[in-house]
Automatic annotation (TrEMBL):
Site feature Transition state stabilizer, where: R27
Cited Pfam families: GalKase_gal_bdg, GHMP_kinases_C, GHMP_kinases_N
Function, in words: Catalyzes the transfer of the gamma-phosphate of ATP to D-galactose to form alpha-D-galactose-1-phosphate (Gal-1-P).
UniProt-listed PROSITE patterns: GALACTOKINASE, GHMP_KINASES_ATP
Active site feature: D192
Residues annotated as domain GHMP kinase N-terminal: 113-198
Catalytic activity entry: alpha-D-galactose + ATP = alpha-D-galactose 1-phosphate + ADP + H(+)
Protein name in the entry: Galactokinase
Amino acid sequence: MSPSDAVSAFSALYGGEPEGVWAAPGRVNLIGEHTDYNAGFVMPLALPHMTVAAVRRRDDGVLRVHSGDSPSGVVVLSVESLDPPPSSQLRFAPFEQGVPPSVGGDRGGWAAYPAGVLWALRKAGLSAGGADIHFESDVPTGAGLSSSAALEVSTGLALNDLYGLDLSRPRLAQLCQVAENAFVGVPSGIMDQMASACCEAGHVLYLDTRDLTQRQVPFDLAAEGLTLLVVDTRVKHALGDGEYAKRRAGCEEGARLLGVPALRDVPYTSLDDALARLTDPTIRRLVRHVVTEDHRVEEVITLLDAGRPRDIGPVLVAGHASLRDDFAVSAPELDLVVDTALASGALGARMTGGGFGGSAIVLAEVSRADRIQAAVESAFATAGHRAPRTFPATPSAGARRVA
Ligand code: GAF
């Protein structure tokens, strides 16, 4: 992603120059899945893949957005009349397909993300106004790698800098989450926006999603002869089809039945007692996943702090089993990546992100990575699946101004 390409495209489209160019990355999550909307712990890292936004302010109350990825042309919106649809009409629309009523018609659902960010800033009482924005992105969409958060955070950071809003990174991430929840209608947690806004190169972000306290944890796998591969199954992941919302509602019901503010408040050591108090088998499984997953994050942070990255492998594998069997968000293609990678000598593997398709991660010795990748590709071909896309998850920088 080159800022100068975004500048050239901006000039060709709108005329003149942008005032600046901002970038925000996609992410993978090392461990801590479906814990963020339970006030729990997560450990994402930013990818080198990013969305770049070339932006110029406007003073006539108009927002124009255009994406190099979208055939829908320039979307023109009135800043004053940006309004989320009534909650009864929120469609929980996936990034690729959704056209929330407020953005409407055939203007392309992706525009709801930047429009929603401007709406959320203004709703918070901040004096952000119109803009011309051109986006370029190499974050794979529908791959569970947070292309939506990259779009939101690049927009939010640009408006923050241009309109002098002085938002902290966590506050910016929260407002981007507001945009996604209340404007676009996807009931996601805070992990993806925090990862895109706050990650640092060479580190994973150890984040408490309750109070957004965070620690940057050095994550130099190459120095240990290790690599973390991302395998994009190219099975479209969509949070918007209601299954994610169902899991979230089930977790909230579990917390209510157990009399705690959130499932994060169920201690791992009293999990059996808590489970014994739940009669609904689905809720019991959701609770078990969340409580054990928070515990796995603790195990991983302890191992990384002790300089034992190889030993996180079995914890990743246990996390996958829990997402597959208890939380029921895996997919046959994700299970095939994990099983094949482990059978070919990977140290650990699991699905990453929301699930229902998307990507898996594989922890491996560098010396075995090619063999594992070839085995996964061959297993996919044999099963008749589309060829997966594999690349290393180099821990990269979070959102920033690039020009
Ligand atoms: C998606 C959501 F957007 C995140 O908030 C998180 O819940 C994740 O799924 C699962 O851990 O990426």
